[in-house]
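Q: Hi! First time doing this. I have a protein sequence and I read that you can turn it into a structure. Is that right? Here it is:
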Amino acid sequence: MNFFAAFVEILCQVLTIAIFIRAIISWFPVEPGNRLIAILYQITEPILEPIRKIIPRIGMMDISPLVAIITLQIIAMLFGLL
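A: Yes, that's right. Below is the predicted 3D structure, encoded as structure tokens:
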């Protein structure tokens, strides 16, 4: 496996974990000034925001994290085949 493919695969896995953690954290009351939460939002928002523009909320449910995780896993799988 070449370096670029391995890098993209690892990056997709890290982003998947970050989005999953963000989704779990959204269920609990957290302090918005928390530095770790702010960093997590800075990392994940560039991925989730474009998806939210295409797929709106369903009632109170935001499925953009689910779509992002599935997309990232497909990308990781495709680069894993290289």
